[in-house]
Amino acid sequence: MLVALIDVKQKSQPILRVFPLVGRARFLLSRLGPKLRQYVVANDNEERPYSRIDRDWVDASAQGDNTQIAFGSRTDPHNGGPTILHSTFASTGQGLTDDSESLETIRDRPLKALGTARQRRHIYQPASWVNISGMSFGSLSGPAVQGLNLGAKEFGCFQNTGEGGLSVHHQQGADLVFQIGTGYFGCRDVDGDFSLEALKETIANHPVRALEIKLSQGAKPGIGGFLPGAKVSHEISKARGVPAGVDCASPARHKAFHDVDTMLDWVEYLAAETGLPVGIKSAVGEQSFWSDLASAMEGNSRGVDFICIDGAEGGTGAAPPSFANSVGLSFARGFPLVYSEFQKRGLQDQVAFIGSGKLGLPQNAIQAFASGVDMVNIGRTALIAMGCIQALKCHTGDCPTGIAAQKGWLIRGIDPEAAGQRVELYLGSLRREIHLLTEACGVEHAGFLEPRHILDLATDHVAGGIPRFH
Q1: Which of 116, 139, 240, 321 lies most in the core, judged by the most C-beta atoms within 10 Å?
Q2: Strand 454-456 relative to strand 461-462: parallel, antiparallel, unpaired?
C-alpha cells in the first residue's frame, strides 16, 4: 500500500500515477520477459544473436559430448540462406604435397604466413586457421581471459589481446596478437598518445607474434569505447596504462595517422621498429577507403601484412542500438567488397585475410573461407563454450557467469583451467567439423574453398555475386 501511495505521488512514470499496481506488474513482466522468452517461449531457432540450436552445439562441443542431431533438419531448407554445395568427387589439381609434415598438421594451419610478402624480420606462421578474437581485459574478467589463453595454448592457436592491453591474464603460454586501439592502451604515454617505448616494453619477453591496428569494430564502427571508473581496477590500470578509478574512454579514430598514406607510413614504422607483421582490423563501411588502400599498396613497398574484416553481426560488450543494428555491412556483404579491391590489382596473395563476426559456427566459417579468408577469429562462441548463457548483461558489469564482470563474487564462478579445457574442446570440434564440410566440398584444405562452393538461395547466386544457375 505504501508503494502504491508513493507511485501515485511520483511524477516520472505516468502509468504508475494512474495505475500503480498494474504499472508495477507491467515493469516486472518487462524485466522477466527476456528470460521467459529465452527459456520458455522462443523456439529452438528463434533467439538472437545465437539460437538455442547454436548454443546447444557449442555447449556439447565444449563438454566433448555428441554434437549430432536425430531425425533430420530442424530448420527450413528453403529459408533463403546460403547453402553449401557438396561435390560428388574430390577436386583434382589441388593438394598438400609437403611430405615433411603430417597431412593433419598442414590442413590445420593457414596457407599464408603473416609478413612473408614484405619480409618482416619475424614472419609468423600461425599453427591454426581458427583463432581467438580480440576481447579486452576489462570488458572480460581476468579469469575469463586466462581461460581463453589456456584454451588457445592447448589447442595451438593465437589469442588476440583486444584493445585493453596485455595483462597478466594473457600470459598463460598462448601466442598473442597485440591489438592497438584508438586509446593506445598498453602503448601510450601520460598524455594518452602512442608511445613506441611503451609498446616495446609491453611486448618484451612475451609471445607477441603480430600487431593489429584496430580501425573499427563490426558491432560499433565509427564510435569509441568507454569503461567507467568503477570498473578500472589496479590490474586494469596497469594493463592499460591509465589511472585506477578514473573513467577510461577511447576515441572513435586514431591520432597517430589521418589517412591511408600516413597509416601505411605508421604500419611500416611499427614493423621496422618491432620486426613484427602489422595488420589492421576494420568493419566495412565506405568502399573508397579499401580502394585507396589497395591502390596505395599496388607496386609499393609499403603495405599491411594482414586484414581482419569484422562483420556488423560481430559482438561487443556495449554499444548503442543504433550502431549495433544499423551501422556497417555484414561480413557476407562487406568482405567480398574488400577482397575484390585487392584481387583485381593482383594483391590478394600478398595479404593474409582474417574473418570475424559470428564465424564460430562451422557453416558460417565455411562461407567465410569460400569468400577468400585465410583464417577466422572466434569471439562469443568461445565465451559460450566457457559458460556464457547469453544473459545480455555484458554492458552492466553484472554478468551472472562472471565472464563479463569485475565483481569478485561473480568472477569466482570461473575456474580458468576448467574454462580453458572447454574452450579447447570447442575449438577442436569446430575445426573438425569444418574439415568434414571442406571434404564434402571435395577439397583438402579450407583455403582451397571457392565461391562456387556456396549458393545463396535468396538470389540463386554463389558467394561474391556470380550467378550459379540460369
Answers
A1: 240
A2: antiparallel
What does pTM read for this prediction? 0.90
**E strands, 75-207, where?**
82-84, 130-132, 158-160, 175-180
| Digit-coded pLDDT (tens) for 335-353 | 999 999 999 999 999 999 9
**Domain boundaries 82-462, CATH class:** alpha beta
Burial of 85 (0-12, 13-18, 19+ CB in 10 A): middle
d(C-alpha 224, C-alpha 319), whole Å: 9
In the prediction, which pLDDT does 71 show? 85
Measured N-to-C along each axis, helices 362-371 and 416-440 cross at an angle, to the nearest 10 degrees, of 60
38 secondary structure, DSSP code: I
Q: What is the CA radius of gyration of the chain?
A: 23
- Of residues 407 and 1, more confidently modeled: 407
For 40, residues 6+ apart whose C-beta sits below 8 A from its C-beta are none
From CA 214, how far away is CA 10, in angstroms rounded?
Answer: 47
Q: Per-residue pLDDT tens for 204-219?
A: 999 999 999 999 998 8
Residue with the larger pLDDT of the pair 83 and 277: 277
| Per-residue exposure over 115-131, b if at least 16 CB sit within 10 Å of its own CB, e if not | bbbbebeebbebebbbb
Q: Where are the domains of the chain?
A: 2-62, 82-462
462 - beta bridge partners? 455
pLDDT average, residue stretch 30-54:
74
pLDDT at 470: 28
φ, ψ at 309 (rounded to 5°): -100, 125
Q: How far is CA 86 from CA 93, 372, 419, in A?
A: 18, 18, 35
The C-alpha atoms of residue 61 and residue 82 are separated, in whole angstroms, by 24
Residue (of 291, 302, 276) closest to 175 by Cα position: 276
